[in-house]
């Protein structure tokens, strides 16, 4: 085997691995779509600038694999912490991630306390409003929830403001509460 053939074989193999890993990343995103927006956004953005194609250079594929590795490593650390600390109960970890606007691999106590309080409020409001599934009840439930979340976050020192604009954490929490209402 000549050096040129070996080089081409290596390039094709790296391209193939990168394209296969891209399909796995897409499946991971599909798995969390509509359930875990912070993780969905994390997986979508970890390789945002580089996409492997059959004509991609080996350098681009290696760069892609490096970014993907870092992103998957962070996702695995996140899951490990959530499972070890039992934060999957009542969506505490998910709520904490939504309060921050991104996935975390360390959860400070004040953020977990805030997330638990938000979860408690969500359950109370769902029991009160989701018995009768009307659009009016849904809007009122979600509006009260977001109002309570702002107060709870302020009490725990969690900043949800985005200079008076609708923030990403509030958007995550809004969508989550809408889904919870629909599924209750």
Automatic annotation (TrEMBL):
Q: Spell out the protein name for this chain.
A: Uncharacterized protein
Q: Origin organism of this chain?
A: Xylanibacter ruminicola (Prevotella ruminicola)
């Amino acid at each position: 085997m000549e050096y040129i053939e070996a080089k081409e074989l290596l390039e094709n193999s790296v391209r193939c691995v990168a394209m296969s890993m891209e399909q796995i990343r897409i499946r991971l995103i599909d798995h969390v779509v509509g359930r875990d927006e912070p993780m969905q956004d994390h997986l979508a953005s970890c390789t945002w600038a580089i996409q492997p194609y059959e004509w991609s250079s080996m350098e681009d594929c290696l760069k892609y694999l490096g970014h993907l590795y870092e992103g998957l490593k962070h996702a695995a650390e996140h899951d490990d912490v959530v499972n070890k600390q039992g934060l999957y109960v009542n969506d505490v970890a998910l709520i904490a991630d939504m309060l921050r606007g991104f996935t975390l691999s360390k959860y400070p106590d004040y953020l977990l306390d805030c997330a638990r309080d938000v979860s408690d409020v969500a359950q109370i409001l769902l029991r009160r409003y989701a018995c009768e599934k009307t659009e009016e009840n849904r809007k009122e439930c979600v509006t009260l929830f977001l109002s309570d979340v702002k107060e709870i976050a302020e009490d725990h020192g969690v900043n949800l403001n985005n200079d008076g604009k609708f923030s990403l954490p509030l958007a995550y929490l809004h969508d989550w509460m809408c889904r919870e209402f629909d599924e209750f």
